[in-house]
């Protein structure tokens, strides 16, 4: 049915559809390229579908929150927030405290969120003050700030714990009595492992079928309502693509359910997904408030914002604080799924991976949406799962696949930053010529 | 009194003052802890010569206006490639410095070519050099990981005995390892002076200094310090930026060869990933900013930074036998100084 609808819209609306497709291809050139690379990787990895879907789902639910934390700073003109690392440290401080106090399970998880927030607010405030002093160089400043904070973090946990901070818990502290252990097991009785994932799990494809059906209905009803009010302004192409996508989700889910395939064993951690969905909703809704409009104005042009009476520094600070708090929570969600806290390693690559993800989803230094964040997470982690195996099957060496994905995560950031800087310069030159 | 103090601090520079005080503090701690002076002094001198040229690579890039060269790994990869090829082709006779000279010669064309291409790229992204440079460096290093596995090197000392690709560290014992350190090297009062290493380092500094006094050096400096004025007086700013980037890349390539030589190993794969940061930090500690640098900054900065880190290792080990306090100290100092410099971007002049 979905296909029929698309064909119809193509026939009735030919010229605008062609330009729409062209625009779609152009706007989404990066995700499309990586969708192709991912599909090639999936094909050559020869991994069973159930394995890929299962691992991918785990990775999507544990990483999406962190990536969604990137959206606001981009809108507020701070660029890609490499300072996620600093937020992640706040989350890890909270996890250490909760593990020390032996509060486990879901209450432990909630305590982590509560305890990490004041840390993250302070860290976010400090990062924001730094970034307000380094306008125009925010991204490299936040990156170096992450490295710097990592040094301080290690100093506190390795040398101040046991000397200035009196913690004697043998589960946490190294045998010499000073410093936190390298790895903290979160799977114990009081551990945080799966403390939110396990709250409520349900087979993925039942949920997907439901979502697909609801989405189809919403699209159709929306279309009917809009076509009654203002039929000439209708973007038929948009509705067609939406209907095709939701129809495809519904169709595939029904097919999986009826075929009784192994994929039915894949379960979705609903509580985690709800948290991610709430953050998505938050990112969308905050843009409808006065604060959200301020973010947009400041991100667009600081001078204009200042003239129109917006406190630029304060607005940027708020965006940074929100992002840092979300990063802390994101790290807690990430670690409760992993089940072990690598005290000095878990946070180090977080920002790089999150930023690479959102860029793969089609975001740029000045534009990012929550949808791009989620699409990016799916693509980046598909690449992560399949590349070692695909590398092995294609080149006879799993290492090459692993190196390739490391290259992609750095390379995509490099290219995106380079293109952004180039673009900025071209625009500046044009403005000069106009004057 | 307060004013003179403030003037004094300003003339030395706050970061240089802090690091100097830290350096002195750690030296006192070393004396109090009765650590062997000769060994420490030898180490400080060796590390000074070993890291110096990498820090020197920052000079042309800052002078030509592209800021500290965070893409130093590009030059490093070229130097590593040159060293590997020198060993692979067996160009390790005594006349060629056991491979040292041939490594430099082979890496030169690579460094000039990549530096040129990278310089052209930098001209397209004026204003965001530091960030793009960092990620260009990261990308090249991670890309070359694939290279180290797939390039057809055959020399048994360099490849894994089983499996594919080059080793993570390639020993230079049988080739040019320590060649410069031993060249005219001597001991005085328990302190070993690696004469060749120091002479080579100072020689490189002298060359860069001479270049900055030459006509093209002054042109490059003008292009970097005041691009509009330079353009008005008929200097091709873009061309000079490319020249500075090529020079920086070449010095980086030579720098890593000297570094590996003194270290005794070529470090491949992820080792070059963060190598730009200590080099940047060194010149900043020496008193440079992201737009101004002198050779003296390289000398002072490398000595203070590397000296402090070298002495901090045994001192820290005495205080905290486990845990890597000096490494943590390095991270804090190195990134703190870069952050400090970043908050000054565009504020001076």
Most residues in contact: chain pair: A-B, 45 and 44 residues
Oligomer: heterodimer
Trace the largest sheet of chain B across and list its strands: 1-4
Overall helicity of chain A: over 70%
Characterize the overall form of chain B: globular
Q: Helix count of chain A, per DSSP?
A: 17
How far do the termini of chain B sit from each other? 27 Å
Task: Explain what this protein looks like in three dimensions.
By secondary structure, chain A is mainly alpha-helical. Helices cover 74% and strands 3% of the residues of chain A. Chain A has one domain (2-13, 50-377). Chain A has helices spanning 2-12, 14-27, 29-45, 49-68, 71-75, 84-100, 105-133, 138-160, 204-229, 236-259, 270-286, 290-300, 302-307, 312-338, 350-360, 370-395, 398-434; strands at residues 183-185, 201-203, 267-269, 340-342. The longest helix of chain A is centred in the C-terminal third of the chain and has 37 residues, at 398-434. The N and C termini of chain A lie far apart (55 Å). Chain B is mostly helical. Chain B has a domain at 38-273. Helices cover 69% and strands 3% of the residues of chain B. In chain B, the strands form 2 sheets. Chain B has a two-stranded antiparallel sheet with strand order 1-4. Chain B has a two-stranded antiparallel sheet with strand order 2-3. In chain B, a hairpin with a 2-residue loop joins strand 2 and strand 3. In chain B, helix 3 (37-56) crosses helix 14 and helix 13 crosses helix 15. The model of chain B has no long low-confidence stretch (mean pLDDT 86). The chains are: A mainly alpha (435), B mainly alpha (349). The interface between A and B is large, with 45 and 44 residues.
């Amino acid at each position: 049915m979905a296909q029929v609808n698309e064909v119809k819209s193509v026939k009735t609306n030919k010229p605008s559809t062609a330009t729409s497709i062209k625009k779609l291809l152009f706007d989404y050139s990066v995700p499309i390229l990586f969708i192709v690379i991912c599909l090639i990787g999936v094909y050559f990895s020869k991994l069973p579908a159930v394995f890929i879907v299962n691992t991918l789902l785990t990775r999507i639910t544990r990483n999406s929150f962190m990536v969604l934390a990137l959206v606001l700073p981009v809108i507020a003109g701070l660029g890609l927030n490499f300072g996620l690392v600093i937020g992640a440290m706040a989350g890890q401080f909270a996890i250490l405290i909760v593990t020390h106090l032996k509060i486990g399970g879901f209450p432990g998880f909630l305590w982590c969120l509560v305890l990490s927030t004041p840390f993250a607010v302070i860290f976010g405030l400090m990062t924001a003050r730094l970034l307000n002093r380094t306008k125009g160089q925010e991204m490299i400043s936040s990156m170096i700030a992450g490295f710097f904070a990592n040094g301080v973090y290690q100093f506190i946990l390795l040398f101040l714990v046991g000397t200035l901070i009196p913690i004697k818990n043998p589960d946490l502290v190294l045998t010499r009595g000073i410093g936190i252990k390298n790895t903290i097991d979160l799977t114990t009785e009081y551990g945080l492992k799966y403390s939110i994932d396990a709250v409520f799990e349900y087979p993925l494809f039942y949920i997907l079928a439901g979502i697909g059906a609801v989405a189809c209905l919403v699209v159709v009803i929306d279309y009917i309502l809009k076509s009654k009010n203002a039929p000439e302004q209708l973007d038929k192409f948009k509705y067609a693509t939406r209907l095709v996508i939701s129809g495809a989700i519904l169709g595939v889910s029904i097919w999986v359910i009826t075929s009784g395939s192994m994929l039915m064993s894949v379960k979705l951690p609903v509580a985690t997904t709800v948290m991610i969905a709430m953050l998505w909703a938050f990112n969308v809704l905050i843009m409808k408030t006065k604060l959200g409009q301020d973010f947009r104005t400041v991100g667009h042009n600081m001078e204009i914002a200042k003239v129109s009476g917006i406190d630029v520094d304060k607005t940027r600070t708020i965006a940074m604080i929100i992002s840092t708090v979300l990063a802390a929570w994101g790290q807690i969600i990430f670690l409760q799924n992993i089940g072990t806290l690598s005290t000095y390693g878990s946070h180090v690559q977080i920002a790089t991976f999150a930023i690479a993800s959102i860029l793969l989803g089609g975001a740029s230094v000045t534009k990012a949406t929550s949808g791009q964040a989620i699409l990016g997470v799916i693509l980046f982690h598909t690449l992560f799962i399949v590349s070692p195996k695909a590398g092995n099957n294609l080149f006879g060496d799993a290492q090459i696949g692993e190196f390739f994905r490391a290259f992609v995560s750095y390379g995509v950031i490099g290219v995106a930053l380079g293109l952004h800087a180039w673009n900025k310069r071209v625009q500046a030159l044009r403005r000069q010529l106009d004057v | 009194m307060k004013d003179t103090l403030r003037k004094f601090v300003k003339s030395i520079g706050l970061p240089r003052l802090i690091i100097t005080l830290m350096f002195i503090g750690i030296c006192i701690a070393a004396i109090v802890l009765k650590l062997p002076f000769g060994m420490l002094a030898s180490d400080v001198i060796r590390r000074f010569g070993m890291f110096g040229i990498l820090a020197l690579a920052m000079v042309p890039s800052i002078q030509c206006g592209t800021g500290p060269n965070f893409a130093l790994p590009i030059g490093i990869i070229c130097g590593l490639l040159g060293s590997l090829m020198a060993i692979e082709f067996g160009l390790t006779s005594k006349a060629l410095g056991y491979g040292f000279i041939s490594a430099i010669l082979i890496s030169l064309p690579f460094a000039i070519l990549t530096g040129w291409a990278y310089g052209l790229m930098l001209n397209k992204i004026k204003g965001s050099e530091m960030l793009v440079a960092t990620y260009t460096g990261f990308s090249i290093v991670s890309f070359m990981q694939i290279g180290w596995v797939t390039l057809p090197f055959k020399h048994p000392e360099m490849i894994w005995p089983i499996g594919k690709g080059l080793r993570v560290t390639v020993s230079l014992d049988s080739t040019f390892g320590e060649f410069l350190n031993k060249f005219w090297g001597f001991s005085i009062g328990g302190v070993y002076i690696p004469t060749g290493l120091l002479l080579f380092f100072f020689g490189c500094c002298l060359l860069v200094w001479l270049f900055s006094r030459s006509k093209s050096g002054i042109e490059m400096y003008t292009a970097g310090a005041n691009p509009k004025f330079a353009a008005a007086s008929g200097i091709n700013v873009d061309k000079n930026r490319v020249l500075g980037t090529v020079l920086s890349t070449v010095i980086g390539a030579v720098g890593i060869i000297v570094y590996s030589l003194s270290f005794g190993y070529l470090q491949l794969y992820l080792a070059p990933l963060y190598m730009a940061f200590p080099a940047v930090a060194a010149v900043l500690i020496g008193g440079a900013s992201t737009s101004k640098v002198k050779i003296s900054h390289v000398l002072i900065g490398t000595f203070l930074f590397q000296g402090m880190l070298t002495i901090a290792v045994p001192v820290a080990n005495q205080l905290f036998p486990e845990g890597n306090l000096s490494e943590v100290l390095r991270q804090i100092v190195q990134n703190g100084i870069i952050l400090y410099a970043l908050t000054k971007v565009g504020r001076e002049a």
